[in-house]
Amino acid sequence: MLEAIHYLRKGILAKLSGAVTWKGQPVQAYNRVPSNAGYPYIIVYSVATNEIDQNQSALHIECITRIEVVDRAISDDGGQLGVNSIMNQVLQLLRTRSIGYVDLTADGFNVYTSVSEGITYLQDDTADHTYYRAILELSNRIQPV
Fold it and tell me: What is the dihedral of CA 113, 89, 104, 5, to 10 degrees?
């Protein structure tokens, strides 16, 4: 089986970089969040790669990634509006029809489906901040070209 998920994550990061904004400012998308990252930000990480069909003529792979939007507010300030708005932009870029799928042809793969498996919204309260998170689980079916 070929490992396509790292190419998919690279493509997702490229598609999000510079394309998502909040309050007129670009929202950074990361593979790994640096310690000096500002809020809000987006992180893209791998969940699973599964063979879904393999025969003599074809190999089909399902890659599941998570795209997480994280924002932070001081204690009782803020809310989920920021992560909702940012996630809306993420969905418009990634959950498209075939013309807008992440292009992996240069890496030897073809993405032929993109399905949102759901979005989870979380709120974490700490002593000095409240963190708001929106987590998209995205399933893409891919085949080698």
Answer: -80
Q: Do residues 128 and 74 make contact, with C-beta atoms less than 8 angstroms apart?
A: yes
90-115 pLDDT per residue, tens: 999 999 877 889 999 999 999 999 99
How many Å apart are CA 83 and CA 60, to the nearest integer? 33
3-state secondary structure of 90: helix
**Which helix or strand (DSSP H or E) is residue 9 part of?**
helix 5-16
State mean pLDDT over 51-72. Answer: 87
Residue 98 burial (C-beta neighbours within 10 Å; 0-12, 13-18, 19+): exposed
d(CA 41, CA 22): 10
**CATH (residue range 5-144):** 3.30.2000.30
